[in-house]
């Protein structure tokens, strides 16, 4: 990630089609590990770097607190995502040959200006901040 969708989500689906890298799974997608909310695939989210100035999903979202910051998808947080995958917080895609697509397999771009404390606190993004 990246960004994370929380229990505040009302499943309006406004964000999914806005994602430039198809990182958001709708509620009824069989790969979505969440119940009743949408899910951002951390191994796919690029925080809209190279696509927009702000996360597009947040621009589309009508619900404050439904999309928040998460940790960057980089090697520094490999264990964080691995642990989350084991706990069920995340469902990291599994590649036939490479295995789990953790940051050790492929890091993703992230917005460097975001304070790590905001990421740790899963703080609001952009227009809600
Ligand atoms: S921040 Fe951008 S890349 Fe990440 S889920 Fe939202 S729209 Fe997709
Ligand atoms: S736009 Fe916001 S409230 Fe609507 S589905 Fe996406 S995260 Fe949930």
Automatic annotation (TrEMBL):
It comes from Sulfurimonas lithotrophica. Coiled coil: none annotated. InterPro entries: 4Fe4S_Fe-S-bd, 4Fe4S_Fe_S_CS. Residues 1-29, 36-72 form the 4Fe-4S ferredoxin-type domain. It comes from the Bacteria. The lineage of its organism: Bacteria, Pseudomonadati, Campylobacterota, Epsilonproteobacteria, Campylobacterales. This is 4Fe-4S dicluster domain-containing protein. Keywords: Iron, Iron-sulfur, Metal-binding. One of its GO terms (molecular function) is metal ion binding.
């Amino acid at each position: 990630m990246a960004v994370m969708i929380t229990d505040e989500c009302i499943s309006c689906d406004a964000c999914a089609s806005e994602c430039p890298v198809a990182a958001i799974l709708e509620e009824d997608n069989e790969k979505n590990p969440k119940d009743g909310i949408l899910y951002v695939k951390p191994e796919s989210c690029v925080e809209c770097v190279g696509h927009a100035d702000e996360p597009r999903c947040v621009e589309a979202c009508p619900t404050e607190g439904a999309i928040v910051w998460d940790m960057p998808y980089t090697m520094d947080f490999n264990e964080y995502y691995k642990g989350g995958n084991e706990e069920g917080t995340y469902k990291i895609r599994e590649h036939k040959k490479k295995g789990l697509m953790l940051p050790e397999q492929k890091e993703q771009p992230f917005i460097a200006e975001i304070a790590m404390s905001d990421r740790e606190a899963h703080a609001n993004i952009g227009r809600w901040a």
